[in-house]
Specification:
The chain has about 950 residues and is α/β, with parallel strands linked by helices. Helices cover about 45% and strands about 15% of the residues.
């Protein structure tokens, strides 16, 4: 038989890996894997293990989750030898990552729930650390991704579970290749292409990817240095290529020169992770005394502390005041996170100088976050003047060039003047191409729209941009009405949230009052919240489009800043509404309470509990929320201020969030084009801004024609001959759904514009879902369906699948409910448990979880894991009880359940009776006993396994 394309690809890949220095080892199954592991660990550590000693090693390896195993991999190990001596050894040499044993094996078979055969596995010191799944050309990478997820459910955890030591997965169809960390909870969006230093992709696995990324020293370096163990979420994270190159450039600078430099990575590309990794590696260099990470706002100080500590538990001990900061400078703290204000106080106040002066000649590395903001004042000069042996590095998404520099008392200053050359660049066009951030859909609403459209409402905009016209009650009223009318459409029926940024505190108060009045009149039920603070002048005086340096929630009691009495009262009134809505007790009476309000709003926006957040400048920089997809703008923005504000909306989440929506009530068209040109280039406007509505209508109609070629009528879907034909239909209809998802966010959208009627779309959708249901319920053992790993992107269809996932979402809602809503949500859950056939069998267990486990959980994020744990324990208890009551062989019973699940064939009575250990029933009893046991097994499967597969 001719070889399959996948087999040829696999053989060529294995040959290339051997040329790179991997030893080829043939391992058929787990027994071979364990035998090879013993030899490799002995070779790596230069020791011999006796049989009993190696059992102890396997015992160490068998403990814990994937996350805990990742820690075990990196820790030094110890066992007591047979003769009583202590033996110290390691699983991997992280310090000198090239000095490990590298092997490759392929087609290793592991039997778990099902038998799985893995394509290509890279072993380091005998442990499987990299898994490569190959698909033939033309197949979507997502299918390989879904296949690995299946392995994780079915076999990675089987027996000695050595495959849970995998750190990195690689998926490829030959021409496209991506990599990602072993984190079962991530989506396909968290898979990355590898690139060179100039962000040029190396996608072909045989031509570029393997020689660069899988080269033994490089992949080992990625595993040892560039995987982050995230403590908060208990997951592995791997750096993207541009993060890797930026950190490497910083390390090279510190090791080989005393020059400064800056990193230009676009907003939303994960600068915190990059700067954390850089800080962590730099602080461990012998020549570096301390690394100081500097932010410019108190809230960012808190946020950064939290994130850094989530990447490495306890690596940061926050500083609440300057005294603590000076203490950290004086003691052996290696990594300090502080605000620029505290740093300024530490080097300029007399009382701290005696301690700080001792550090003037030490080698200290300063890393400035968002260095386009904080660095344009005297503090920068002061730091340089005070310390004699420091290096300064900046991170920014929007550098300051001559074009967008604002004058201060020190003149106009660019990022290059302050920090020197740019060490690595990853601009917004790179991020959009890599699907690390979304495009923007910008709609300008107002008179100057040239054609008949839903966005042409009579709002004065252009040349008549005078304060009184822009703030006239009539104009504000119309804008508010427009937002109320279009908000659901923009946010996919409030699946996402929005921000509304306005020109001044005064205008914000007017808008808030209009929204509040209309809410009381019953014209909308949007949850509106607001926060603002300002330096003494409340007005955006020169309205120059740059976001002013906010005092925001900075530092000590200045927080409430020269707010005029009227504004302060209004802010308290708005906080009062918020307190009513969420049963909280915030106020502006003291800065701590106001700061807590700030943090609470931030949390509520991320949890989608606030529909629209009204702001002047706060939250327009440095605030990340994946669930925010819309920004309403009634404010002049320019250059970095504009890109920063727009970028609040473009974080990647899922298929449904296809773009960041920007709805502008001023003529910012030129300002937008200028900003994009400055931070990438003129051609980039095409890449960054979504095309007009008409283009998507045309695209939809073309996709509809493709669909009709495959299935001319709805009923013709039933007549599709093969799975290949069904796959063609699925792809064609999925493309239609994707375009419709984008179209519905446009204010102009109406079905009449499309060549396909809404009802026809719904009819095809129902056939599409039938195919989905068929694939999901169809698990014949002999043949794996080619549709099994296709992604149906069901998030594009808003239909609540009532399964355990759905229940978990309700439990999260129940836990997060304010007291008065608890009984309502509980009732909703119990009604559902009664009304859904599949859930009825699970009712008692879910009620038990609500009553016993839910009250003791602190955080809603812990619910899925706690529910998983609870379910597995209850399943084990019920299984043990069944085996005990009926005197069955546990191993045989487990096997019969697995066969039943896989083949969907009920066990025969004789097979069931074979499970009984000891005395078998008499001929007369056989039928009755056999049926009873079979019924118990089927009930067990129905309760614990059916409907639970996609947890």
């Amino acid at each position: 038989m001719a070889k399959q394309p996948e087999q040829i690809l696999e053989e060529q890949l294995v040959a290339q890996l051997q040329r790179l220095g991997y030893g080829l080892v043939q391992l058929k199954d787990e027994k071979d894997l364990v035998g090879n592991l013993k030899q490799q660990l002995e070779k790596h550590n230069n020791i011999q293990f006796s049989k009993a000693e190696f059992e102890k090693v396997l015992n160490i390896l068998s403990k814990g989750s994937v996350f805990e195993k990742a820690k075990t991999l990196r820790e030094k190990q110890h066992i007591v030898r047979d003769n009583g001596d202590n033996l110290y050894f390691e699983f991997i040499n992280s310090e000198h990552w090239c000095q490990n044993q590298f092997q490759v094996t392929h087609q290793i078979t592991v039997e778990g729930t099902y038998k799985n055969r893995y394509d290509v596995t890279l072993l380091v010191n005998g442990l499987p650390l990299v898994q490569i799944e190959l698909k033939r050309r033309g197949l979507e990478l997502k299918e390989a991704f879904n296949q690995i997820n299946r392995y994780q459910r079915h076999s990675f955890g089987a027996h000695s579970a050595l495959f849970q030591y995998l750190q990195i997965f690689v998926i490829s169809n030959g021409v496209n290749t991506k990599y990602y960390a072993n984190n079962r909870h991530q989506s396909f969006k968290q898979t990355f292409y590898w690139t060179d230093n100039e962000n040029k992709r190396l996608t072909n696995i045989l031509n570029g990817f393997t020689s660069e990324f899988l080269e033994p020293c490089h992949i080992s370096k990625m595993i040892c240095k560039y995987i982050v163990l995230n403590e908060t979420n208990k997951i592995l994270m791997v750096l993207r290529p541009y993060q890797f190159y930026a950190v490497e450039a910083l390390i090279d600078r510190v090791k080989n020169s005393n020059k400064n430099g800056y990193i230009w990575h676009t907003t939303g590309s994960g600068k915190t992770l990059t700067s954390f990794k850089a800080s962590q590696i730099l602080m461990n260099l012998p020549q570096v005394k301390k690394v100081v990470f500097v932010v410019d706002r108190k809230d960012l100080d808190y946020q950064t502390n939290k994130e850094f500590n989530s990447f490495s538990k306890g690596c940061i001990d926050g500083t609440d005041n300057t005294k603590q900061l000076v203490q950290q400078f004086s003691d052996d703290t290696k990594l300090i996170v502080t605000t620029i204000q505290k740093l300024n106080t530490a080097i300029s106040k007399k009382q701290y100088l005696s301690k700080m002066e001792k550090l003037q000649d030490e080698r200290i590395v300063f890393i400035f976050d968002e260095c386009h903001r904080s660095q344009f004042g005297e503090t920068h000069n002061r730091i340089k003047a005070f310390f004699n042996n420091i290096q300064l590095f900046g991170f920014t998404g929007t550098p300051i060039f001559a074009d967008n520099a604002v004058k201060n008392e020190l003149g106009k200053r660019t990022t290059t003047e302050l920090f020197g050359e740019c060490l690595h660049k990853y601009v917004i066009t790179d991020a959009i191409k890599d699907e690390n951030v979304l495009k923007f859909s910008v709609e300008y609403v107002g008179r100057y729209k040239r054609k008949e459209t839903a966005t042409e409402i009579d709002i004065e905009v252009e040349d008549i941009d005078t304060k009184e016209l822009m703030e006239s009650p009539k104009r504000l009223e119309k804008i508010t009405d427009y937002i109320i009318a279009n908000h659901n459409r923009k946010t996919h029926n409030r699946d996402f949230t929005a921000m509304f940024c306005v020109s001044s505190v005064e205008t914000l108060i007017k808008y808030y009052d209009i929204f509040q009045r209309k809410k009381e009149e019953g014209k909308h039920n949007l949850r509106i919240a607001s926060i603002f603070s300002y330096a003494t002048n409340e007005d955006d005086a020169d309205a120059n489009g740059f976001l002013p340096e906010e005092l925001s929630v900075v530092e000590e009691p200045r927080a409430l800043y020269g707010l005029q009495a009227h504004s302060r009262e209004k802010l308290d009134e708005f906080i009062g509404h918020y307190n009513q809505m969420f049963e909280t007790k915030f106020s502006t009476k003291e800065s701590q309470s106001f700061y807590n309000y700030y943090n609470d709003i931030s949390k509520k926006v991320k949890e989608r509990k606030i529909d629209i957040l009204l702001v002047v400048n706060m939250f327009l920089t440095g605030f990340d929320s994946q669930t925010l997809n819309t920004m309403y703008v009634d404010k002049n923005l320019k250059y970095h201020g504009l890109i920063q504000a727009y970028s609040r909306t473009n974080r990647i989440l899922n298929e449904q969030k296809s773009q960041g929506n920007i709805i502008v009530f001023r003529n910012l068209k030129n300002a937008t084009d200028q900003a994009i040109t400055l931070f990438s280039n003129k051609e980039a406007i095409e890449v960054i801004i979504m095309k007009p509505y008409e283009d998507y209508v045309k695209k939809f109609n073309e996709a509809f024609i493709e669909l009709i070629k495959i299935t001319p009528t709805v009923n013709s879907v039933n007549d599709l001959k093969s799975e290949d034909d069904e796959l063609e239909f699925i792809k064609a209809f999925r493309e239609l759904m994707r375009i419709k998802n984008i179209l519905t966010a446009f204010a102009d959208f109406k079905w009449e514009d499309l060549a396909m009627a809404e009802q026809l779309f719904e009819d095809y959708k129902s056939k599409y879902l039938d195919l989905y249901d068929k694939v999901k319920s169809n698990h014949q053992k002999e043949k794996v369906s080619i549709l099994e790993d296709v992604d149906f992107e069901l998030e594009l269809i808003h239909r609540d699948e009532i399964n355990v996932n759905y229940i978990i979402q309700l439990l999260i809602k129940l836990k997060a409910s304010v007291q008065k809503d608890v009984t309502k949500t509980e009732k909703e859950i119990f009604n559902l448990l009664n009304s859904d056939a599949q859930l009825r069998s699970k009712r008692e267990l879910i009620e038990k979880f609500i009553q016993e486990n839910l009250p003791v959980l602190e955080d809603t994020d812990d619910i899925p894991e706690a529910f998983d744990k609870f379910w597995n324990e209850e399943q084990q208890k019920a299984f043990n009880q069944l085996v005990k009551d009926e005197n069955l062989s546990a191993d045989k019973t487990e096997k019969i359940i697995e066969d039943y699940l896989f083949a969907e064939r009920e066990p025969l009575r004789d097979e069931v009776l074979e499970l009984i250990e000891g005395n078998k029933p008499t001929v007369l009893e056989r039928k009755k006993v056999g049926e009873r046991i079979l019924s118990k097994i089927l009930d067990f499967v129905d309760t614990f396994i059916n409907g639970m597969t996609h947890r």
